[in-house]
């Protein structure tokens, strides 16, 4: 039967034969009142995903994992998703480590094709052990919700052995001050002769300033604008700049735009032919593409810029001899989120109050005791400006 089925398709255009659509799945709830109107697996998945439609990153990640499992269940196993057993999902986890046959499941050359392109495939290659675990966590959330909604009788992933979680003693995915210096040195030595080189250099320097001094997530860089910078007078009559960030989960926070950050912003804007300071409501993206376009860079494009710098800095380290290889390997693994972790770690190292670090990075609030630990914004700005520096 599976040989007659079409290649994998995105779920928005997917058509599943009735015998595989889950309308009579073995794990369908037979008793009680369903809380959703879905009559088949595809509609049930869509109902679950609809909860995340306003949070693009979450929606994309959840859709990807649900879509992969549904396609595998129908095309590889020849059974509805709502008939999958615990044993089936153990097989699926092994499949994630090496999706075969590759021609059916993996995009040629690992390229990411648009969802409407016939070359689109659900995978770009094998998943790392971390990505496999993340996939199963997301699917467990989905199955649990479908049980709660009265669509499934049970969660086949609930039988998985739950390992006790122990808090890690500290964040490990961050750059030590010595490795951070290597990155800054590499950036400062980037070619800077032609107009295009200068434009690229100034963009890289500004992007790394935002990620480090602001502790911004890569998605926050792409989704916010320069018009979100604003100036406010503090209790001492001193003007201070802030960046209002619309962040994860639609939450807003104020990031201190330190004197260093504003100097870097002014230099970047002048390089691009813009006034030194942004105006209120200005819709220019925080980081501009090369050329005349004012279209925001995608998360993937920003990620590529950051990874190219880390790779270049790692290569420069390796070129200095074998003794530098371990540090180069660590740098090679770094991503934009490492800069956010580095910002938090370095602020803590400089003895910035942890409550200020929490507010700068937009972490979850403290519990009810937070009312006794409140720190005013002006002090947060002073402490951040004084102790959290990039020192180009």
UniProtKB/TrEMBL annotation:
**Could you confirm whether the keyword DNA-binding appears in this record?**
yes
Matching entries from SUPFAM superfamilies are given as:
DNA breaking-rejoining enzymes (SSF56349)
Q: Where is the composition biased (Pro residues)?
A: 1-10
Q: Which Pfam families match?
A: Phage_integrase (PF00589)
Q: Which residues form the Core-binding (CB) domain?
A: 43-147
Show where the Tyr recombinase domain sits. Answer: 170-385
Where is this gene product found? Cytoplasm
Any idea which UniProt keywords this protein has? Cell cycle, Cell division, Chromosome partition, Cytoplasm, DNA integration, DNA recombination, DNA-binding
Spell out the residue ranges making up region: Disordered: 1-27
Task: Reply yes or no: does the keyword Zinc apply.
Answer: no
Q: What is this protein called?
A: Tyrosine-type recombinase/integrase
